[in-house]
Amino acid sequence: MYPPAIKKLIAHFSEFPTIGPRTAARFVFYLLKTSDEEVKKLAESLLQMKERVKLCSFCFNPFEPFDAAQDKPSKHQEWLCEICRNPGREKRVICVVEKESDLAALENTKQYKGRYFILGGTVQKLKQEDLEMLRTKELAERVKGPEIIEIILATNSTPEGENTALYVERKLEGLGKKITRLGRGLPIGGELEYADPETLKSSLDNRK
Ligand SMILES: [Zn+2]
Q1: For 34-73, what is each residue's pLDDT tens digit?
Q2: Overall pTM surpassing 0.90 (yes/no)
C-alpha cells in the first residue's frame, strides 16, 4: 500500500539490528516530515562516516585518522587505531570483546592498559553462519606470537557471550597461551556496556 520509494527505504531500515518493519516505517515517515536540508545533512553524514572511518588492522576498532589522505598507510603498513598505536599500551595482553561498545565500556574504566580485539559477534548455537562472523582466524593470527602472554576473554555474561567464550577458548587452546575471563562481579545476563565502571574495573582485577 505504500509508494515504492517508501517501501524501499522501509526495507533498508528493516535490515538494521533489532529494527523490525514497524519501527522502520516510523523512521521513514519521520524522514518524510523532515526538511530537505536536514535529510541532506543526514545523507552526507552517512557518506562521510563511510569515507572517514577506518577499521584498525590489528583490533578492528573503528577510528577516524587525523587526516585520512595524509595518514594513508603505504602498501606494507597498516591502519592502526589510537590504542594500538599508543607506545604506552601493554602489547603482551589482548582483551577480546564482542563488539565496539564493549571496548568503549572497558576503556572507560581507565584500568585496562593492554590492547583489544573485536570479535565481531557472538554465537548462540554453534551455527556455521554465526561462527563465520566471528574473527577467530584473525584472532589466532594476532595472538600466536611469543610476545603475547595473556588473552582476556571479555564477552558479556549472557548465554551467547558464555558460548562464544567457550568456543574461542577451544579455538585458541592449541597455542598454549594463558587465557583468562573477567571476574564474575558482573550482573548475570548483563552486558558490559551497561555495567558501571567500578564493577567493570573490579571484574578486570579479579579475572581468572
Ligand atoms: Zn586497534
Answers
A1: 999 999 999 999 999 999 898 999 999 999 887 655 556 6
A2: no
The maximal CA–CA distance of the chain, rounded, in angstroms, is 62
* Ligand 1 centroid to residue 144 C-alpha, Å: 17
User: Hey, which bits of the chain come out as E strands?
Assistant: 54-55, 62-63, 90-97, 114-118, 150-153, 178-181
Cα(24) to centroid(ligand 1), Å: 33
User: What CATH superfamily classification does 4-51 receive?
Assistant: RecR Domain 1 (1.10.8.420)
Q: Delimit the domains of the chain by residue range.
A: 4-51, 89-205
Ligand 1 center from residue 47 Cα (angstroms): 23
- What is the third-level CATH fold of 89-205? Dna Topoisomerase Vi A Subunit; Chain: A, domain 2 (3.40.1360)
What is the 187 CA–ligand 1 centroid distance (Å)?
28
Kindly report which listed range (84-98, 132-146, 175-189) carries the lowest average pLDDT score. Answer: 175-189
